[in-house]
Amino acid sequence: MPTIEEIPDLPPFVSQVAGPQAKYTDHDKFVDDLMKTPLFMKTMPTEKDIEENETLAAIHSLIYDGTPEEIATNFKNQGNEAFQAGPREFKHAINYYTKGLEQKADSPKLNAILYANRAAVNLELGNYRKVLNDCGAAITLQPDFVKAYYRSIKALLALDKLEEALDCCESALKIDPHNAAISIEQAKVLKRKTLKEETARAQLERERQKEADERMLQIAIKARGIKMISSDPKSSSQSSQSHYVHASQGTHAPHLDKTTTPPTLCVPIVLLYPEYSQSDLIAAARETDPLQHHLDTIFEEAAPWDTQGTYKPDNLDVYFESQSTADKPPRLLRVGSHLPLATLLQHNDYAIVDGVATLFVMARSSPFAKAFRKRYTAPKAP
Fold it and tell me: Compositionally biased, Low complexity: which spans (predicted)?
């Protein structure tokens, strides 16, 4: 960077623009003053800059020298140049087109072009509502302005307003039936519309199938005499299975496996091991499977928490807690693990709570199991 002493005199053409040259002793002030001259300005001048700078004021007055149509045309041309300069100048392009409109030129065609050009900038910026507003104004002033229709179609497609976009396509093609750009956009809109309709039909079919599966499930549950209740006191004890939510089951829920004839009921089961405060989730236990089948699988290898080594498939008892009433405390009933799951689910004292079957599993004859059973009256379930 040159020192103050090394700064040369301003060239004659700069002096003519900047005014009488000062003898600078401060480099920063020199650069600051230089940047205030129109030739070197990097940003659009503010109203304050114009008021304080005679050169800018003179140039500004030249801009507004002429008829409203001439001034508006000048702003339109400046806006076009800014737009063509790229995204960094888009803000200025909008400003120029706006200033052109502010001249209120007595030329519908010129004003329509200013609106449409401003819409073109906003289309690039993704300001689709502004695009539609400006294109609407342009079409009002010049009903056969196909470019305004084109930009409206682009904005409507981006907003997924497909019916309105098609209306614009039809209007534009009535004016210019062979306009290739409009035809291309029309094809895009029709393709999007078809895809959207197909997606909607598929969604409707999924919803209908879900409702049919729900009805079929409720019929199957009722036919088997299985009780489904909710832990939420505000819910009906026989509410729809969609209300059954349990932290342990996650997204799993009772359902019918329709690959079998007749369909097989599948239920999520949580096995609780109260001795070690552990649990396992069987996501979809089939009603025809015996519980022992699942115990054999789960305890094929020793559980890492089974420090005593007593939780082996042939050394386990399974229990469920019966539902209590005002005059009947809950009981702990033992379940025959070799019986099909359906036998448990259909037991008079058993209910699936919140869509998940819950069972206690303990090592047979263990001190903990004996102490746990003492909390209940534990007759063997018939």
Answer: 230-242
